[in-house]
Design brief:
mainly alpha; 2 domains; 19 helices; globular; disordered N terminus; disordered C terminus
């Protein structure tokens, strides 16, 4: 790996972690505060509903396309023209299926305007991701850096003007603003891409079938993960006759969980090629798995501990119509980040291994567990029921992944390591509780908690000093 490539990757991670959290907390949170939990709850439910059909928009097209272009630079023009045709066919199918599914699920006619806008925004987002995926495949990493945040920067500008300057917005203006940002982003990305590749539109059903066949197992993983992560919001809105109020409260807590997931997702994007390379060369994945699991354990415990003990403070700071239900939902959901974060390590290893049948079966069982729990708990506990269903499902999936990894890779877990991990978790929680009781500013308490959890991870041998030092030396030598 060249130092130039490494710098591009670090820059890509840095700008994404700066821009996207600002959009989530500086824009989305303020939009919900201005339009209220009911309106935003309806939007959140319909957004999650569209998310369930995301696999139709991209049944592996983006990954297949990037891999093909990277390997066949000389034949790009005809290929991209056919792939654009495939995207068009998939987009039309997506819109039709979302509309039909909305009728089947019983959405009232009044929902269809905003549902249509959300579905079109999903379509535009998918097209934008498809266009910008060509730049890294062509080795144009500086364009990837720019286009990875262009859409969110435009949304910040357009929506920020309405939220902070005009101070007036409704859910339709919110959707139209997102649509405008995507149109501008797609227009700019297309102009830049055409400077490097000349392409047109070619409809090819055979190309579409070829792509779907080659990536079907991976597409199933995406579908199943969408279902068990997004059903909660849809079921809340359908089961509660409250104009989306409970869904809005659930969305407030889930938004922060989603923001936390960005760290885990970036982590997984680095691990996937690393695991795949080791497996292809018949090398042991255990050293990398140990280091990755240890680092993710540290991240999870810091986020979970801070989120759980300061749930009230965080939600009170973010939401103007705060009530104790906001904090109660968030404190449950943030515990689930432990399952989500660790799953990104073990799930990524299973994906890199390529044996996806058992993994897909596990995810399908997770969907059934999630649906049953939501059905039983939402009617009794409303949004809290959905939060508990999410937490239980995420932990269930993690346990299943641990079992599959141990079976595939014949990994024997030592009692010493189990004891060390449990001790670290216990120490983190006890220290977090004790610091929480101190009579000082809660933001300072959060910072102290994070620092002590990091120190505890070194003292208890979860993160090893010599491994960190060797990585730093390795980075210096590459420079």
């Amino acid at each position: 790996m060249s130092s130039n490539f490494g710098r591009n990757i670090l820059f890509l991670l840095a700008i994404n972690l700066l821009v996207k959290p600002f959009y989530i907390f500086g824009i989305e949170v303020q939009v919900q505060n201005m339009i209220g939990p009911e309106s935003y709850g309806q939007y959140f439910a319909l957004y999650n509903f569209c998310f369930l059909f995301l696999v139709i928009l991209d049944p592996g097209v983006h990954n297949y396309n990037s891999k093909w272009i990277a390997e066949n630079h000389g034949k790009v023009t005809d290929h991209i023209s056919k792939t654009i045709g495939s995207k068009l066919l998939l987009s039309l199918s997506f819109l039709c299926i979302v509309g039909l599914a909305g009728l089947i699920i019983g959405y009232p006619i009044s929902y269809y305007k905003i549902l249509g806008l959300i579905a079109i925004n999903f379509l535009l987002a998918s097209i934008y991701v498809f266009i910008k995926s060509h730049f890294p495949a062509l080795g144009k990493y500086h364009y990837e850096n720019f286009f990875s945040v262009l859409d969110k920067l435009l949304m910040i500008l357009i929506l920020g003007f309405q939220v902070y300057i005009i101070q007036k917005i409704d859910i339709y203006t919110f959707a139209y603003s997102i649509m405008t940002a995507y149109f501008i982003s797609i227009f700019i990305a297309t102009i830049v891409l055409r400077k490097h590749i000349k392409f047109s539109l070619k409809i090819s059903f055979s190309e579409l079938i070829k792509i779907v066949k080659s990536s079907f197992a991976f597409a199933l993983i995406g579908l199943f993960m969408s279902l068990y992560n997004r059903m909660d919001g849809v079921m809340l809105e359908r089961m509660m006759d409250d104009n989306g109020y409970q869904a809005g409260i659930y969305a407030a807590g889930y938004r922060i969980l989603d923001a936390s997931n960005m760290f885990a997702l970036l982590f997984a994007s680095i691990l996937l090629p690393l695991f795949a390379n080791l497996i292809a060369k018949n090398k042991s994945v255990l050293p990398v798995l140990k280091e990755a699991s240890a680092l993710m354990l540290l991240i999870c415990m810091a986020i979970v501990s801070i989120g759980f003990f300061y749930a009230t403070d965080i939600m009170q700071l973010l939401y103007t119509d705060f009530n104790p239900l906001y904090a109660a939902n968030f404190s449950i959901l943030i515990i689930g980040f432990f399952g989500v974060g660790m799953s990104y390590v073990f799930g990524t290893l299973l994906t890199a291994n390529g044996k996806l049948w058992e993994f897909n079966v596990l995810l399908f069982i997770g969907i059934l567990v999630n649906w049953i729990l939501n059905y039983l708990l939402i009617s009794k506990m409303q949004s809290l029921g959905a939060s508990y269903a999410t937490l239980i499902t995420q932990m269930f999936i993690l346990v299943g992944q641990l079992y599959l990894v141990s079976q595939y890779f014949k990994i024997r877990i030592s009692l010493k390591m189990v004891f060390r991990v449990l001790l670290f978790v216990l120490v983190s929680l006890i220290v977090s509780y004790l610091i929480h009781t101190l009579p000082i500013n809660w933001i300072i308490k959060m910072l102290i908690t994070g620092i002590i959890i990091i120190l505890a991870s070194f003292l208890l041998g979860i993160i090893r000093w010599y491994a960190v030092i060797s990585q730093l030396k390795s980075a210096d030598s590459r420079e």
